[in-house]
Design a protein that fits this description.
This protein is 53% helix and 11% strand. The protein is of the alpha+beta class. Strand 7 and strand 8 form a beta hairpin. Helix 12 runs parallel beside helix 22 and helix 18 crosses helix 22. It is globular, with a radius of gyration of 24 Å. This is Cytochrome P450. It comes from Hymenobacter edaphi. Its cofactor is heme.
Length: 506
C-alpha cells in the first residue's frame, strides 16, 4: 500500500509521495494512482483530533481493518466503537480521515445549538453540493440564513393545511392499485412497502412542488437519478481509498453527467413554468419564484430556484418514504399497537377520511410516527467542523476538528431511553416523561432543524391513517430486515407485508 499511496508524515499528517526506493520500477500508471490518492483524500492535521487530552481513540489499524465493514454496514461498527471506548471517541474514518465521533447529547447540543456559529457543516456535507447544488441543505453562513428566512413561510401551518387535500389525493391514487389487487386476490395482497412508500412520498413532494404537470416517466427518472447520485456519494465518503480507482474508471464524470441530467430535467420544467400564460398554480415552485428578498426586493435567480427545488425533492421524500417503510414494519411486528391505532381511527373518524384539523385528535398516530423516527431516525448522522478552537467540558476541539454526531446512537442509548430497542409509542404520550435535551433528534437540531419537519410529520400521519382505513397490515415470513444507512436510513432490501382489506372497506 505504501508503495502506491505514499506515506503520512507523522509530525505533519501530510500525504507525501512514495519514498524514493519504492518508486524504482513503478509504471506510469502506478505513479498516476499515487498522485490521485494523495490529492483525493483531504487530511486535517492529527492534532485536530488527538490534542483532546484523555480522548479515547480507536487504533488506526483497527479503523483500517474495519473500513470494508464500515462501508457495508456502518451502524454495528460505529456502535461497537462507542460501546467499547465511550460516548465520544477519535478514529480514522475508513482508516484514512481523522474524525471525532460522538453520541453524547450534551456535546451534540453544544455544536448544533449553543455554539453553532463555530460549527458549520464539514466538507463531507459540502461535497454533496457537487451533485445537488447550493440549496438549503448544503448552503452555509449568511447565505443559508438568507435563504432559510426566504423559504420558511412556504412551510407554515397555513400552507400545510392547504396541502393536506393534495396529499390525501395522491395517497388515494397510490393505494388504488393495491386495493384493486387485493380484491382480485380474495381480499389480501403482499406489498413491497418501501417501493410503495417511496412512490407515494415522491409523488406527494413532486405534486407539492410542481403541481400535476410532471409525467410518470419524469417522476420515475427523477427518483432513479436521486437514488443513484446519493448511493455513489455515500460510497466515496465511506471508502475514500477507492476515490483514485473511481476516478480512473470515469465514475466521477459519469455521476457528474447524471447530476447535469437532473438539473436539465428540473430546470426545463422551471423555465416552462415561467413562460406559461394564465394563472400560476399554488405550489412550492411558485412560492420559490414569487418570493422576494427584503433588502433588495429582487427574486431568486433561476439557478437559486433550481438549487432549492432539487433540495426540496431530495429532502422532501427521503424522510417520509423511509420513515413510513419502518413504520409499517414495526406495526406488522407489533399487532397490538396496530389495533390501538385502528381503534383510535374508528372512534375519531368513523368512515370519513381525515382532515388537517383532525390530526390533533389522533394523538396515538403521531406517537407511533415519533417512536418510529426514534428507532429509525432518517437523519442518523450529522457532521460539523470546528471553525475555531473550542472546548467542551474539558475536551479540546481545535480548529478543523471534524465531528460526526451519531444520532442513531443517541436514540438507542440505554442511559437516555428505557428499553431503547422496544417499539413503544406511548413513550411520547402526554403522561410519559420528556426525553433529556438533545436525546431525540430525528430532524436534526438547533437553527438548522429541518425546514420540512412539520410537512413530513403531517404526510406520515396522513399515509398511516389512509392505509389503516382500508387495510390490516400483516407480517410475512422473510429474511431478516436490515438497514442501509445512506444519507438517510432506509431498508437494505424491500419489506414485503400483507395488506388485508377490511370486511367493509372505508
Amino acid at each position: 500500500m505504501w508503495g502506491v499511496a505514499g506515506h503520512l508524515s507523522r509530525p505533519t499528517g501530510i500525504c507525501l509521495r512514495p519514498r524514493p526506493e519504492r518508486r524504482r520500477g513503478q509504471t506510469r500508471f502506478v505513479r498516476t494512482l499515487s498522485r490521485l490518492f494523495c490529492s483525493s483524500i483531504p487530511l486535517m492535521a492529527p492534532a485536530a483530533v488527538s490534542a483532546a487530552a484523555g480522548l479515547p481513540r480507536v487504533p488506526r489499524l483497527r479503523s483500517f481493518r474495519n473500513s470494508w465493514a464500515l462501508a457495508a454496514d456502518p451502524i454495528p461498527v460505529i456502535t461497537g466503537y462507542l460501546d467499547t471506548y465511550g460516548d465520544t471517541v477519535g478514529l480514522h474514518l475508513g482508516g484514512v480521515r481523522p474524525t471525532l465521533l460522538t453520541r453524547d447529547p450534551g456535546l451534540i447540543q453544544h455544536i448544533l445549538q449553543k455554539n453553532h456559529r463555530n460549527y458549520p457543516k464539514s466538507d463531507i456535507s459540502q461535497g454533496l453540493a457537487r451533485y445537488l447544488g447550493h440549496g438549503l441543505l448544503t448552503a452555509e453562513g449568511n447565505y443559508w440564513l438568507q435563504q432559510r428566512r426566504l423559504i420558511q413561510p412556504g412551510f407554515h401551518r397555513q400552507r400545510l393545511a392547504t396541502l393536506t387535500e393534495l396529499m390525501l389525493d395522491v395517497i388515494d391514487e397510490c393505494l388504488a392499485p393495491v386495493v384493486a389487487a387485493a380484491r382480485q386476490q380474495g381480499g389480501r395482497v403482499e406489498v413491497p412497502v418501501h417501493e410503495l412508500m417511496t412512490a407515494t412520498a415522491f409523488r406527494i413532494i413532486a405534486r407539492s412542488v410542481f403541481s400535476s404537470a410532471m409525467s410518470e416517466d419524469e417522476l420515475q427518472r427523477l427518483s432513479r437519478l436521486l437514488t443513484e447520485l446519493q448511493a455513489f456519494y455515500v460510497r466515496t465518503l465511506r471508502q475514500p481509498y477507492l476515490r483514485p480507482w473511481l476516478g480512473l474508471r470515469g465514475q466521477y464524470g459519469h455521476h457528474d453527467r447524471l447530476a447535469a441530467e437532473l438539473r436539465q430535467l428540473i430546470g426545463g420544467y422551471i423555465r416552462r413554468r415561467k413562460q406559461q400564460p394564465g394563472p400560476a398554480p399554488d405550489d412550492l415552485l411558485q412560492m420559490l419564484l414569487d418570493v422576494r428578498y427584503e433588502d433588495s426586493g429582487l427574486p431568486m435567480t433561476d439557478e437559486q430556484v433550481l438549487d432549492e427545488a432539487i433540495i426540496l425533492l431530495v429532502a422532501g421524500h427521503e424522510t417520509s418514504a423511509n420513515g413510513l417503510s419502518w413504520l409499517w414494519y414495526l406495526l406488522a411486528r407489533h399487532p397490538a399497537e396496530a389495533a390501538r391505532l385502528h381503534a383510535e381511527l374508528a372512534a375519531v373518524l368513523g368512515p370519513r377520511r381525515p382532515t388537517f384539523a383532525d390530526l390533533p385528535r389522533l394523538p396515538y398516530a403521531l406517537q407511533a410516527v415519533q417512536e418510529t423516527l426514534r428507532l429509525y431516525p432518517p437523519v442518523w448522522m450529522v457532521d460539523r467542523r470546528a471553525a475555531r478552537d473550542d472546548e467542551y467540558q474539558g475536551l479540546r476541539l481545535p480548529q478543523g476538528t471534524l465531528i460526526s454526531a451519531y444520532l442513531y446512537g443517541v436514540h438507542h442509548h440505554s442511559a437516555l431511553w428505557d428499553e431503547p430497542e422496544v417499539f413503544r409509542p406511548a413513550r411520547f404520550g402526554p403522561e410519559a416523561p420528556s426525553p433529556p435535551p438533545y436525546a431525540y433528534l430525528p430532524f436534526g437540531g438547533g437553527p438548522r432543524l429541518c425546514i420540512g419537519q412539520q410537512f413530513a410529520l403531517t404526510e406520515m400521519q396522513l399515509v398511516l391513517l389512509q392505509v389503516l382505513r382500508r387495510f390490516e397490515v400483516e407480517w410475512v415470513a422473510q429474511p431478516p430486515v436490515l438497514m442501509r444507512p445512506l444519507i438517510s436510513l432506509r431498508p437494505r432490501h424491500d419489506i414485503r407485508l400483507g395488506f388485508r382489506l377490511h370486511e367493509k372497506p372505508a
